[in-house]
Amino acid sequence: MTAEEVFKKSHEELVKQGGKWLISTSNSCSVVATVVTTVAFAKTAAIPGGMKEGSSAPNLEHDPGFIVFAISSLIALSFSVTSLIGFPTILTPRHGLQDFQKKLPEKLLYALTYLFISLAAMLVSFCAGHFYLVRDELGHNAFLVYGVVCLPVAYFVMKQFPFYIDLAHDIFSRSPRNLPS
Description:
By secondary structure, this protein is mainly alpha-helical. Helix content is 75%, strand content 0%. The protein starts with a helix and ends in a 9-residue tail after the last helix.
């Protein structure tokens, strides 16, 4: 037996377990990406302030908050659709041992990146659109409320960030990490 055959034989179970984990993670993220895409699409179609009568221009067309809303909702929609396409590309092909080294982790990293960007943009879009509802009562204090509202999302990101950094390091670094024993 060659060294490569010994390596393949001794890592068969690890490849099976890795494949199951990757499929489970991709399926879960695909569901999240589908929900985000649905919400982002609905948010993009709902224009705060409505449209000018007899025109196709929004009432708040030149308001900075509306511009933030429009750009962030478009970013959320674009990146969520991209992540929605990215996760199934992990699921569809057959996976060999060599795919787990670089190809599949790269696909997962890119799809997760697109999903995180879409979530952040959707949150900005919601805050910008919601600002029109509370700006008269709260004024600039609304930004404090939005900061508090963003805390759960920030907590989630902080919990996922180490995995994301480890994945990026493993993909792009040429030297191995020192893992604790």
